[in-house]
Specification:
The complex is a heterodimer of chains A (292) and B (331).
Chain A: H1 4-33, H2 42-60, H3 64-85, H4 95-121, E1 134-137, E2 140-143, H5 144-166, H6 168-178, H7 180-185, H8 190-213, H9 223-237, H10 242-262, H11 268-282
Antiparallel strand pairs in A: 1-2
Chain B: H1 2-29, H2 32-58, H3 65-79, H4 85-107, H5 112-138, E1 143-144, H6 151-172, H7 176-186, H8 188-193, H9 198-220, E2 226-227, H10 229-232, H11 235-248, H12 255-270, H13 275-292, H14 296-330
Antiparallel strand pairs in B: 1-2
Helix pairs in contact in B: 1-6, 2-6, 2-9, 2-11, 2-12, 3-4, 3-5, 3-9, 4-5, 4-9, 6-9, 11-12, 11-13, 11-14, 12-14
The chains are: A mainly alpha (292), B mainly alpha (331).
C-alpha cells in the first residue's frame, strides 16, 4: 500500500518510538532484576513525569530538557519513598507470600499514584507543543521533538549501560541481579542497593515521561497502557538483560509503527498482546534467554 | 484449634445462605433504592466468590475480573436484541472460557508473575480492542442498550448465578478438586508428585470462574442505558474485587464475602461525591492490609477467638492445679 520511500519513514518512526519504549522498559527491568520488585505502578510514574513536565512547561515556561532532571529526581524520590514505606517489608515475608504481596503492593501504589494525579490534574488529555518544526531525515520530515526524545532515550540508555558495565556501582547491581545471596555473602548491603536500584528505576520512569510528553497526548489514566508495553518488552527481551530490553523495545516500536501505517494506530496494544501471547506460548524465556 | 476454625466457618456459611434467602425476597418488600443496592451487592458477591475460588487457594492472583465481566457485557450488548438473554449468557460464558483458556495456556504453566502480568494488561487490551472495533466497523464510541429483560427477571437471574457460585464454593472446600487447588497453592511440585494434573486443574478452574464473571456481566448489561468500553472494562472493578477479598481475608473460604458489604457501603456513600480521594483511600487500605493484616478481617477474628480459647484453657488448667493443691493440702 505504500511506496518504498514511505517504508523508510515508517521504519524510522518505529525506531524513534522503540527507543523511548526501550528506555521505559530498562527502568522497569532494573527494578525487577536487581530490587526484585515487579512494579505494576511503573507506568504511573511515567505519567507523573509527563504531567509534571507539562505543568512546568505551560505554567513555568521551563523547557522539558531543563525539567528532565528535576522530574527524574521527583520520580526517583517517590519510588524511594514507596520502597521505604512499604515495599521493603515484603522481603521479610516467606517466599510464597512475598511474591503475591509484592505485586499487590505495587497494584495498590498504582491506585495511590493515579488518584493523586487525578486530584491534581483532572482526567482530561494534556498536550503541549515544543519544538514542533520538521527536520528532514533521509528525505522524510520528522518533528524535531520526536528526534530529540529519541536521542535523549538513546543517551540515557547508553549512560545506564555504561554505569552497569563499567562502574563499581554497576558491578554491585549486576552481582545482585545474578545472585542476591552470593552478593550478600561477599559483603554487599543488599537492602541499601535494592533501594538504590528501585530509585534509579523510578528516575528513568520520570525521565522517560518527560521525553514521551514532548510528542504524546496523555492523561493520568494512561499509565496502565505504558506499564503493559514495558512488561511486553521485558518478557520479549528477557529479565535482567539491558541489550535484550533495547532490542525488544526497538522491535516492538517498529512492529507498532508498521501496524499503525498498514491498518490502524488504535491496534498498537493489540500488536503488543499478540506478541506477548506468542512469546509466552512459544519461548517463555524471551528471545534472548534468561540472564541469571 | 481446628474446631475454632471450623465453627467459624460453619456459622459464616450458614449466615450467607440465610442472607441469600433474605435477598431472594428483597424485591417484594424493599424500596427501589434498596433493590438497586442489592443488585450491586449480588453482583459483587458473585464476582468475589468466583475470583476467590481460583485465586484464593492457588494464590495466582487474577487482575482480570474486569476483562471477563466486560466480555459478558459486550456479548449482551451485541446480541441482546437478537437472541434471548439466557442465550447471551451462554455465549458470554463460552467466550470467556475460551479467552481464559488461552490466557491460562500462555501463563499458568510459568511462574505466577507472568499470570499476574498478563491478567493485569488483559482488560486494558480488550478495552482498546473494542474501542477500535466499534470505531472501525460501526463508527461508534458507545452504545445505547435496549434489551428486553425486566428488572425483576434481571434480579432473579443475578440471584441465581450468585447462589450457584456460593454453593459451588461451599462444596469445593471439601472436594477432591478443592484439595488439589490448595495443594497447588502450597507447593506445585509436591502437588504434581501427589498425582494432581497441575496445569489442567489450574487452567480448568481459572476458565470456569472466568465464565462465571462473564455471566454476571452479561446479566447486568440490560441495566445500563449506555455502554462505553471504558465502563465495561473499568480496571477499578478488578481492583475492588481484590480489595474486598483481601479485606475479608483469603485464608478462609468464608473470608472474602465478609469484605464485600463494608466496601460496597463505603463505595455507595463516598464514590459519587469524592471519586478520586476515595480511590486514594482504597489504595492505602489495600497496602495497609497486605503489610499489617494479610489475613484480613477473618484472620483477625480467628486470632481473637483462638486467643480467647487459649486463655480459657489456660484458666481451666490453673484452676485444676489449684484444686489439686487444696486437695493434697487437706489430705
Amino acid at each position: 500500500m505504500a511506496g518504498s520511500g514511505t517504508w523508510v519513514a515508517v521504519l524510522l518512526d518505529g525506531l524513534i518510538l522503540g527507543g523511548v519504549y526501550a528506555l521505559i522498559a530498562l527502568g522497569l527491568n532494573l527494578q525487577y532484576a536487581v530490587a526484585m520488585i515487579l512494579n505494576l505502578a511503573y507506568g504511573e510514574l511515567v505519567m507523573l513525569g509527563a504531567l509534571l513536565t507539562y505543568t512546568l512547561y505551560t505554567a513555568g515556561r521551563l523547557s522539558p530538557l531543563v525539567s528532565l532532571l528535576a522530574v527524574a529526581v521527583v520520580a526517583g524520590g517517590v519510588s524511594a519513598a514507596a520502597y521505604l514505606a512499604g515495599l521493603r517489608r515484603v522481603f521479610r515475608m516467606d517466599r510464597r507470600e512475598a511474591e503475591v504481596a509484592m505485586l499487590l503492593l505495587t497494584f495498590a501504589l498504582l491506585f495511590l499514584l493515579q488518584s493523586s494525579a487525578l486530584m491534581l490534574w483532572g482526567a482530561e488529555l494534556r498536550h503541549y507543543t515544543f519544538w514542533g518544526e520538521p527536520v528532514f531525515l533521509l528525505g522524510h520530515p520528522f518533528s524535531t521533538n520526536r528526534l530529540v526524545a529519541a536521542a535523549g532515550a538513546f543517551l540515557l540508555s547508553g549512560a545506564l549501560y555504561g554505569i552497569l558495565r563499567w562502574s563499581s556501582l554497576g558491578r554491585v547491581l549486576r552481582g545482585m541481579a545474578d545472585n542476591p545471596r552470593a552478593a550478600q555473602l561477599v559483603g554487599v548491603e543488599v537492602e541499601r542497593y535494592r533501594l538504590v536500584a528501585f530509585g534509579i528505576g523510578g528516575m528513568l520512569a520520570g525521565a522517560s515521561g518527560t521525553l514521551l510528553s514532548m510528542f504524546w497526548s496523555f492523561s493520568p489514566t494512561a499509565g496502565i497502557d505504558v506499564t503493559v508495553r514495558a512488561l511486553v518488552v521485558i518478557v520479549l527481551g528477557g529479565i535482567g538483560s539491558v541489550v535484550g530490553s533495547l532490542t525488544a523495545g526497538l522491535l516492538l516500536g517498529v512492529a507498532e509503527s508498521v501496524v499503525s501505517a498498514v491498518w490502524d494506530p488504535a491496534l498498537r496494544l493489540t500488536v503488543n498482546f499478540a506478541v506477548l501471547t506468542g512469546i509466552l506460548l512459544w519461548r517463555p524465556r524471551g528471545l534472548f534467554g534468561w540472564r541469571t | 484449634m481446628a474446631d475454632v476454625r471450623e465453627r467459624g466457618e460453619s456459622i459464616a456459611w450458614a449466615a450467607y445462605f440465610l442472607g441469600m434467602l433474605v435477598l431472594l425476597t428483597a424485591p417484594r418488600w424493599g424500596s427501589a433504592y434498596l433493590v438497586g443496592f442489592c443488585v450491586e451487592l449480588l453482583s459483587y458477591m458473585a464476582l468475589v466468590t468466583a475470583w476467590t475460588m481460583f485465586s484464593g487457594p492457588t494464590r495466582y492472583f487474577s487482575l482480570a475480573t474486569a476483562a471477563f465481566f466486560g466480555i459478558g457485557t459486550y456479548v449482551t450488548v451485541y446480541l441482546g436484541g437478537r437472541i434471548p438473554v439466557l442465550a447471551c449468557v451462554a455465549v458470554a460464558a463460552a467466550l470467556a472460557y475460551l479467552v481464559a483458556s488461552v490466557v491460562g495456556l500462555a501463563t499458568l504453566r510459568l511462574s505466577g508473575l507472568y499470570f499476574v502480568m498478563f491478567t493485569f494488561g488483559l482488560s486494558e487490551f480488550l478495552r482498546q480492542f473494542v474501542l477500535w472495533f466499534e470505531g472501525r466497523l460501526f463508527r461508534k464510541v458507545g452504545r445505547i442498550v435496549s434489551v428486553p429483560f425486566s428488572d425483576l427477571d434481571l434480579y432473579y437471574a443475578l440471584w441465581g448465578i450468585t447462589a450457584v457460585l456460593l454453593l459451588s464454593a461451599f462444596l469445593l472446600r471439601r472436594s477432591r478438586l478443592g484439595y488439589a487447588l490448595r495443594a497447588i497453592g502450597e507447593d506445585e511440585l509436591a502437588a504434581a508428585h501427589a498425582g494432581v494434573n497441575v496445569s489442567r486443574v489450574k487452567i480448568g478452574v481459572f476458565a470456569a470462574t472466568a465464565s462465571a464473571m462473564a455471566v454476571v456481566g452479561a446479566i447486568l448489561a440490560p441495566r445500563w442505558a449506555y455502554v462505553l468500553p471504558d465502563m465495561a472494562f473499568d480496571p477499578t472493578r478488578s481492583f475492588q474485587v481484590v480489595l474486598m477479598a483481601m479485606l475479608g481475608g483469603i485464608r478462609h473460604s468464608y473470608g472474602p464475602l465478609l469484605g464485600t458489604i463494608p466496601l460496597l457501603l463505603l463505595y455507595e456513600w463516598l464514590y459519587a461525591r469524592y471519586p478520586y480521594p476515595f480511590m486514594f483511600v482504597l489504595g492505602l487500605l489495600l497496602a495497609v492490609l497486605i503489610l499489617y493484616a494479610p489475613g484480613g478481617v477473618s484472620g483477625m477474628m480467628e486470632g481473637i477467638l483462638q486467643r480467647a480459647e487459649e486463655r480459657r484453657q489456660e484458666a481451666m488448667r490453673i484452676r485444676a492445679e489449684e484444686l489439686g493443691h487444696v486437695e493434697s493440702g487437706e489430705g
